[in-house]
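Hi R.,

Here are the chain sequences for the assembly we discussed:
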Amino acid sequence: MSSQPTERTRTFDRLAANLGRVGGVLGLVAGIVEVTAGSSIRPWIGNKNDPTRLGIVTVVLAAIALASAGALAASDRSLRPSRRLGIVAGMLLPALVCFTTVGRLWYVPGALLVAAGVLAASGLRGELRGIAREIDHDATRILAITLAVIYLALGLTAFGSTGLIGVVGALVVAGLLVVRPRVDTPVTVALLLTATVPFAVTTWWSIVTPILAVLIVIIGSAAVTCVRTPGAAVEAQRSRAPRARTGVGAESVLRGGLGATETHHAALGTREMGKPK
Amino acid sequence: MIHHDDEPANAGTEETMSRRNFLRRAGLGLGAVAVLGSGVLSYRAYDQGVLATGEGPAYAPWSDWRDGGGMRQLIGAATLAPSPHNAQAWLFGLHARHIDVFADLARTTGAIDPFLRELHVGLGAAIENLVLEARSLGLVPDVELVPFGSRSNHVARVVLTPGTRRPSDLRAQIPRRHTNRYAYVVDKDVPTAALARMGELVDPTVPEVSIVWVDRARQRAELGELLVDATEAIVADEAQSASDYRWFRQSWDEIQRRRDGITVDAAGVSDLTSSLAKILPAQSQRATGESWLTSTRDKHTRTAAAYGIVVARDATDVRQQLEGGRLLQRIHLWTTGQDLALHHMNQITERADREIQLGSAPRFGDAFTRFVPSGWQPLCTFRCGFPTEQPKLSPRRAVEEVIAR
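And here is the predicted structure of the full complex:
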């Protein structure tokens, strides 16, 4: 949990949000220019072979940066470390990646977004432990989302209806991972299969899409369902437990985190280990 | 809950938690490695255009070759012609009433084609496309070959005067024609009537050029063996092998930038093999040569339903080479319209020319003569048959890049 931000952090956040919004808007303009007039101004866009597609990528990434800046502007005073990290990544990654997509047109928006990202990142000082804890808690989901992003990227590189199938599938996977609907594991697996298999089957020869689909189903189903498993609940409870509450106190917290089934198993296990009377 | 007297109350749970924690972390580590690996693999697939076969600016001319209209459209049609190693060794001079065609001698295939025989055949194919397109637009093309003699790289002048539209079936096939390097349907011969119809494409006003068919099984097998031997000799010849390899494009970026050469996609391999070839590191010259030899032996010659040999009275004459190229292109366009497949296979003449260049014994030059009637010389060779797969597009340079300044 983050502490209350200092005045300096609040000032930096405001500045970062403003820079990010200006950079994001300029980035959108750069992307649109690349899509519409890129082939006529090749030196300005870094002599790209495929200005249309790279322009679309630029627009999408600039929109992500703009949304991140907007989220920073709209955030309350106590920004959770993981949320701040997400905002920083949402500005910095597009800022850096787009230096390779739209040439000189990105110099100004890229510089503004990098500055915004660095300013926003300054609020992360002293929060590394908290970030590490949150990342550890959500590691499976982060892995699965990473896979979904890769799947989305491959969908975007494929053409026509095949590419569309990939994009839609990746978005469905991402949606499942974000929303984490309270459904049974078989249903989750079925949903993930439905989202990933069509693109993987139509592009099976590419080797990468079938591999990704398998990984998404395995890691994705774990990510969607693990939050409801007793172990994860215990871990979650433990990570949330105040340090002072150790020993018996912590045990009671652990017990409190166990579901009925787990309590039953734990009791059985103890009973088996105990000496017969 | 029942406790062992000596154990702390939560010892079992702690042990379970520790084991679970260990397993969880191990699983996460494996997952992270798998995600990282798949990320690297995906990037490589993206970088090599695995999912973008036939897309991008290098392939755009196949769909937008008519852009610009008028004379530019004629050049657009010409650039879709086949050429040795897809080197596209052509340049066009655009004028108000005529188009000049030049050989771009910076784009030869070196030791593969030491006397520019194939280069001129490719230019002849481009001229034929230009002529067919001109007629379909209502222009009457008057083709003058080698207007300044065979030593000049100015190989043709096509004067265009207004006339009536003469669209043809052949012209309609120009953007559909592709070299098919896949295996062909086995034991399905090209009908004799089709061979005869292709024979009718010989221009009666050019008696120095004709076509010879090798369609009987025994002859086919003999010619196939000779082709395999010639391929083996080319692969073993360092200079020829290097010249061949120079036009093999293995990087997606290079394909999109240079827009020429032979690509993995157009090599007639399965989609899976093609993906693997793109994702894995680029093949060496030796491996590429061996792969070509294997394909020639196990796929190309074994499944050829017929071989066609374009012959000339004097195969060293530039004019006849150009006319041979025009005939070859008409045949290729006709086969496209009949859903037949065609693949240029010039290994024997490449070796024969190399023997002359090196002054060595004419092994292949002599061996090839038995397939050709007396008084004729082989100019270029192809196999045809019924396709098992539709060929992929080959990269093409844009019209702006081939207009002489």
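Residues 7-37 of chain A form the longest helix (31 residues). Chain A touches chain B through 41 residues (CB under 8 Å).

Let me know if anything looks off.

Best,
T.
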